[in-house]
Structure formats: structure tokens, C-alpha cells
Amino acid sequence: MSAILRCTRTLLRLTALLLFVVALSVPAFAEDGQAKKPLKDTPQRVPARATAVSVEHEGADTAGTRLTFQLKELFNTASLFNLTDADTPKINLLVSTQPEFSSRPEIGSAYAIVWVYAESKGNLQYYLGRQVGVVSDATAAEVAQQIAERTDGIAVKYGYLFGK
After folding, report:
1. Average pLDDT, consecutive stretches of 10 residues, N- to C-terminus, the chain (164 residues)
2. What is the DSSP string of 91-105?
3. Which pTM value belongs to this model?
4. Cα separation of 90 and 54, whole Å?
5. Residue 124 belongs to a domain with what CATH number?
6. Is 21 contained in some domain?
7. Sequence-ordered list of residues with C-beta below 8 angstroms from that of 152, at least 6 positions apart, any chain
8. Which residues fall within 8 angstroms of residue 124, CB to CB, at 6 or more apart?
9. Which of 34, 99, 126, 129 has the most CB atoms less than 10 A away?
10. Residue 20 CB burial class (10 angstroms; 0-12, 13-18, ≥19)
11. SS3 43
12. Is residue 44 part of a domain?
């Protein structure tokens, strides 16, 4: 009999504890009687993220020159970039190209690109990245697109340099 009494007491205590916990949590879920005001549907302009860039080319081969022109055209027309030679904080792309085969320059060109950050023309430039590859007249547009995408990735990664 005493075991049944102990079980009953324990069960009553657990029930009382459960009711206490439920009583504490109910006000958190209860409505306070006031209707919540809906949020205003007013779209706000997202600040533009246009990174200042410049392209410097070294080389006289046709495929390398075409790649450089494709890059400048992409940077000039894309909303993510602002192609400029002004003395402002920017990412400089230093592009060096030469014929892949000196005896057959029309086949393609080897290129090397170094991304550097320049606060101004008089300051030391900071290394951000590099890339090497081969380009032909047929692949210049595709390679320029890949380089522009990589430039955007670098701009996002080092965006703090621009104070954004």
C-alpha cells in the first residue's frame, strides 16, 4: 500500500510540475489582444557594387591584344565594374601576353595576369591574385569572361579595401 501511495505522490508531483511549466509557457504563445501591423511594402534601392578597375597590357601579339580589348569591353559594359584610369582606389589588371609559338603567332598566345590593388598612382600596389593560360582568337571572348568573373570574385573578397 505504501508503494502505491509513493507512486501516486510522485505522479501528482510530476503532474503539478508539468502544469507549472505549461502555465509559464502559455503567455508566450498567447495573443496580446492587439493586431500586429503589417510591414510596409516599400522596396529600397540596393547600393550598387561597382568596382573600379583598369587594364594594363604588355605585348604586341594579336590574340593577346584581342583578349585585352575583350576584357576592357566587358569591364566597360558590365554594371559590376567601372573601367577607369583615374587616380582612385581600384583593382589593376596587369596583362602580359606573347605568342605561344614565335614561328606561328596566329595559333595562340600565352598570357599572365596579375591582379593588384592600388590606392593611388603614387602608392605601392598590393598583390591580390594571378592567373596564367593560353588564348587564341577563337577563345578570347570566353577567356575574357572567365577573367571578368575572377575579377569580380577578387573584388568581393577584398571589398574591405574599398571601404564598402
Report:
1. 71 68 59 67 74 94 94 94 93 95 83 95 93 94 96 93 77
2. EEEEEEEEESSTT-T
3. 0.69
4. 7
5. 3.40.50.10070
6. no
7. 51, 80, 81
8. none
9. 99
10. exposed
11. coil
12. no
